[in-house]
Design a protein that fits this description.
With 166 residues, this protein is of the alpha/beta class. The chain has five helices and six strands. Helix 1 packs across helix 2, helix 3 packs parallel to helix 4 and helix 4 packs across helix 5. The radius of gyration is 14 Å and the shape is globular.
């Protein structure tokens, strides 16, 4: 499995699935979720909400609407919209997304910095939790995982954690 880090929009990566750092209600109001809904279409949110409640530590799959990826994996990092979260919930969300991707036989995934927007997890803690989950649960079934963000601090944190853990 390859882990690629890029300063790039999650919404432009042609992977099997992108991961939405969701809330348990499936509502896609702001941040990454809002951008996914705005560009991909309202249907993504409707499909996610139809599968709610989605517990932290679980994930659901929806179609991707107008996005270049095939699917969106909604992996809650928080129960309610705009709620503060923590690295342990980020780890559980990433793990759930990976397990669902493996179950659906997806080969490529893209994650943004999970929990770092309205969830207020600092980039270093998010990157560490995410990369720990990826290393613990993603194996050769998933060929490529992209860690992408438009925030320089998040991209730097991804690179720093990967470098330390080599």
């Amino acid at each position: 499995m390859k882990i690629m880090v890029e300063k790039r929009s999650l919404l432009e990566i042609p992977v099997d699935a992108i991961v939405n750092p969701a809330n348990s209600l499936g509502r896609m109001g702001g941040g990454v979720a809002g951008a996914i809904r705005k560009l991909g279409g309202e249907q993504i949110e409707k499909e996610a909400m139809a599968q709610a409640p989605i517990a932290v530590g679980e994930a659901v799959l929806t179609k991707a609407g107008k996005l270049p990826c095939k699917f969106v994996i909604h992996a809650p990092t928080m129960e309610k919209p705009a709620e503060r979260t923590n690295p342990e919930k980020v780890f559980r969300a990433v793990t759930a997304a990976i397990e669902l991707a493996k179950k659906k036989k997806l080969k490529s995934l893209a994650f943004p910095g999970m929990g770092t927007g309205v969830g207020r997890v600092n980039p270093e803690d998010s990157a560490k939790a995410m990369i720990d989950a990826i290393r613990n649960f993603a194996d050769k079934e998933i060929e490529t995982i992209y860690l992408v963000d438009l925030n320089d601090d998040m991209v730097k944190a991804f690179r720093s954690v990967l470098e330390k853990e080599r």
